[in-house]
Amino acid sequence: MADPRTVVTRFAPSPTGFLHIGNARTALFNWLYARHTGGKFLLRIEDTDRARSTDAAIQAIFDGLRWLGLDWDGDAVFQFSRMDTHAREANRLLDEGKAYRCYMTGEELEAERARARSEGGRVESPWRDRDWREAPAGRPFAVRFRAPRAGETVIRDIVQGEVRIPNTQLDDMVLLRSDGTPTYMLSVVVDDHDMGVTHVVRGDDHLTNAARQMQLIEALGWSVPVYAHIALIHGPDGAKLSKRHGALGVDWYRDQGYLPAAMRNYLARLGWGHGDDEIFTTEQAIAWFDIADLGKSPSRLDFEKMRSVNAHYLRAMPAQDALAALEEFATAHGHAAFNETQRARIAGMLDALRERASTLADLLDQAAFLLTDEVIVPDDAAAAVLTEEARARLGALADALADVEPWTAESLEAAVKAHLKDQGLKLGAVGPAIRACLVGRTASPSLFAVLGGVGRETALMRLRAAARPA
């Protein structure tokens, strides 16, 4: 058990798929509160659904949390490995008369459920007050909790306030199935107690679960944790976040080139805030965060705002860190590690490239013309400006620039303008064609920065290659 003075939070995902963006925010809030209070943030893998739990999903949870920078304290707890402990507590309740053996057959249970649905009541087991010794010999049984019939269960929730649920709405939940395996509700209660969890921060879709779990906790003679049930994240249209909104998994954001620090900042603002602060460091978030400040209303996922926050972080990164992050992203997506020439080119143009990028994927795309010494194949819009007349002008320009020293944006700008003046031309007469052959697009950073950035040999080669008849 943890020191009662220590705040202990937990993140307890089921490993049945990717790490959901909503779950990532829940993990973040738990992590922030633990770090704010100097407490502990624990990780529990709720893998009791053996048919759906997979090793790949467990790894996705680990990878997602590590990518987000949410480090947990101690080893992850695997719920399935604790089944015997869960069952022992259920049998203690059975011995104390707080649970009972239910011998209902599958057909009887389904009939009772149909009755409860039609009459608006709850499932009632005839074995609640019946002597189990009357059951047919050898018939399997489930263990059900003997829930209170009268009164109400009151949840004093940090976020939702006081929530009252009539006990008539809460049936006798199953603790052990007929094969002896524990149910989710029992396992959660036992694990939270044994892990010393003091604060349960989770989605408000668990409010009814909280009432059931409180009853069970009190029956076991344990202390009820502090509850904070947070509103779920909705899609841009205000509907509950679902597959139709896309981008549900944390891995998608990583693969799109979002930065962990930016994601922490953005997700923290979905349901929590500190005044009007939109951009803040993780250290500031830890210092400011309190679950009492969590909002009660759902938040909307805003992809444009997320890109904006990420763009801020991308531009604010130290150049060396940004270059390292870009190279790591590039190699993760099948690119070879940068060579010294490529690294130097990108470093020289990094600030200009970052101004046009919101994610690492954007930045890599912007830098593509610097990562090859080959002729660039222009896209359709760029190809359209490479008319016969424009190509002829590129050839003359290449000759005029061949001996420019030093090969810098400033020197090249002076040389290009001098050449165009001699030819009686404006920059607009040749600028789009220069950009088309050097970058392959109609938009790029400063034309002279691009000329300088690709280097003398590559720039002249591309200009001359474009000058040849199509």
UniProtKB/TrEMBL annotation:
It is found in: Cytoplasm. It holds the Pfam family Anticodon_2. ATP binds at K243. Belongs to the class-I aminoacyl-tRNA synthetase family. Glutamate--tRNA ligase type 1 subfamily. It comes from Futiania mangrovi. This is Glutamate--tRNA ligase. The keyword DNA-binding does not apply. Keywords: Aminoacyl-tRNA synthetase, ATP-binding, Cytoplasm, Ligase, Nucleotide-binding, Protein biosynthesis.
